[in-house]
Amino acid sequence: MTEKIAVLGAGSWGSMLATILVENGNEVRLWSYKQAQVDELNNQHTNEKYIKDFTYPEELVAYGDMKEAIRGVDDILFVVPAQVTRSTAKQVNEILEELDMSVNIIHGSKGIEQKTYKRMSEVLSEEIDPKHRKSISVISGPSQAESVAKHDITLVTTASENIKDAEHIQSLFINEYFRVYTNDDIIGVEIGAALKNIIAIGAGALYGLGYADNAKAALMTRGLAEISRLGTSFGANPLTFTGLSGFGDVIVTATSSDSRNWRAGYQLGKGETLDDIVKNMGMVIEGIATAEAAYELAQQRGIDMPITSAIYKVLHNQLTIDDAIKQLMNRRGRAELD
Questions:
Q1: Total structural domains in the chain?
Q2: How far apart are CA 18 and CA 23, in angstroms?
Q3: Which of 184, 215, 242 is the last residue of a domain?
Q4: CA pair distance 98, 200, nearest whole angstrom
Q5: Are residues 240 and 126 in the same domain?
Q6: Three-state SS for 114?
Q7: pLDDT in tens, 142-191
Q8: Fewer Cβ within 10 Å of end Cβ, the chain: N or C?
């Protein structure tokens, strides 16, 4: 079934999700607030800042005017940075009100809003009037955009409180190289998607310092235990964290140099300052803001998250990476499954 879909956010992941939707026969409008990027996508069919040496399908049309991108669509996919999702959703709600439309809302953003500690589906439900949204779903999983561009075999999850809504999103994206599973645990999927970026920063830092596979495996495994503890405190299904949006996403994000969170950690491990890393990256490093939100949320809820706490303190110059590692390794012995 062909649908009209607006994709908001033309970064690496947004532009690749838009490409999948086009390849699956949908009419896709890709919105960016940067006119130069819109012109490049429409004229050269490239997006060089985000995906090198890739040619986008000619059928993918970029828009600088959000209203025109949204007019008449069936679905709106948010793939903007987590910290601007609320402001973008406010704009979308105003447009939907003006155009008298109701659509399916999807998001592929991986983060937690600072200060409110809200997941992205919560932000979207607060800002988009119920009369303008038929559903809210998330798509997430181990999926580096650069690998998707090469049609690497990729498996992800789409989640919604109503499984029928998740199945609808599944039908839009699934194809011979991009396999989509469904889940009704939107809490677990969103928390796993957001917090794995923190672990990726830590994994990059370890690699930058010269640590090897044992350290990487330790960080990923114990980091996932922290994610699960926080997620289940909100009612998430613990099995979600053993799946694609949990362990799967941790694996790819914490081991791939294509991950900007991993690269940020690696540069920290090499002694670069966070300010320089952010300035030179040129793209949002979601794990930095998420580390702050997760640290504060864990303190508020009394959840033991020592790795998250250590990474937060490193990012905020309260600990050196070496001191953070020493503190973690010298903690009191405990049972693994506590």
A1: 2
A2: 9
A3: 184
A4: 41
A5: no
A6: coil
A7: 999 999 999 999 999 999 999 999 999 999 999 999 999 999 999 999 99
A8: C
Does a structural domain hold residue 338? Answer: no
Q: What is the pLDDT of residues 268-280, one digit of tens each?
A: 999 999 999 999 9
Q: Which residue has the tokens 């990923």?
A: 220
* CA 125 to chain CA centroid, nearest Å: 18
91, exposed or middle or buried, with CB in 10 Å at 0-12, 13-18, 19+?
Answer: middle
Instruction: Please check whether residue 310 lies inside any domain of the structure.
Output: yes
Question: Residue 337 domain-assigned?
Answer: no
- The band of 1, judged by pLDDT with boundaries at 50, 70 and 90, is low
Count Cα neighbours of 54 within 13 Å in the Cβ-side half-sphere.
20
| Residues designated catalytic | 196
Cα(99)–Cα(126) distance, integer angstroms: 20
Tokens for 32?
């960016």
Q: For residue 307, what pLDDT band results from cuts at 50, 70 and 90?
A: very high
Residue 51 in tokens: 């995906």
Task: Give the residue numbers spanning the domain of 248.
Answer: 192-329
Whole-number percent of the chain with pLDDT over 70: 100
Of the three residues 184, 201, 219, the one that is the final residue of a domain is 184
